[in-house]
Design goal:
OsmC/Ohrsf; KH_dom-like_a/b; OsmC/Ohr_fam; single chain; OsmC family protein
């Protein structure tokens, strides 16, 4: 699977338009970093990828099993430790409008870990850069 995303940044400090297919979002830096805080910062986007993929993966499984779950809440906290080259994602998942059994919750934990973004983050990662 290949995804192409294009980020464009003009002269307005850190206000960046990101386009993927027909969808656009805005990223920015917080005010204390010189931005205008008009969009997610890059670390929030990274955490968003894990949170949204986890929720969608769980919803697909829950729907296939025909379990009655009104809402899935996924919270991701990203802590970055550049000096030790460690990043820690703390993911908290809760379900509203349901009473899931321990066996169901155990299965959903495995399904959350099968989220494609989760798997990518656990893989070896390469970044190949070219200037044109």
């Amino acid at each position: 699977m290949s995804v192409i995303v294009k980020a464009s940044l003009g002269t307005t400090k850190y206000y960046t338009e990101v386009v993927a297919g027909e969808n656009t979002l805005i990223t920015d830096e917080p005010i204390d970093k010189g931005g205008q805080n008009k969009g997610f910062n890059p670390f929030e986007i990274l955490a968003t990828s894990l949170a949204s993929c986890t929720a969608a993966t769980l919803r697909m499984y829950i729907d296939r099993k025909e379990w009655n779950v009104e809402k899935i809440d996924v919270e991701v906290e990203l802590e970055n430790f550049p000096l030790t080259k460690l990043a820690v994602f703390k993911r908290s998942i809760s379900f509203e409008g349901t009473d899931l059994s321990e066996d169901q919750l155990k299965r959903l934990h495995a399904i959350a870990d099968a989220c494609p973004v989760h798997k990518i983050l656990l893989n070896e990662i390469q970044i190949q850069t070219k200037f044109s």
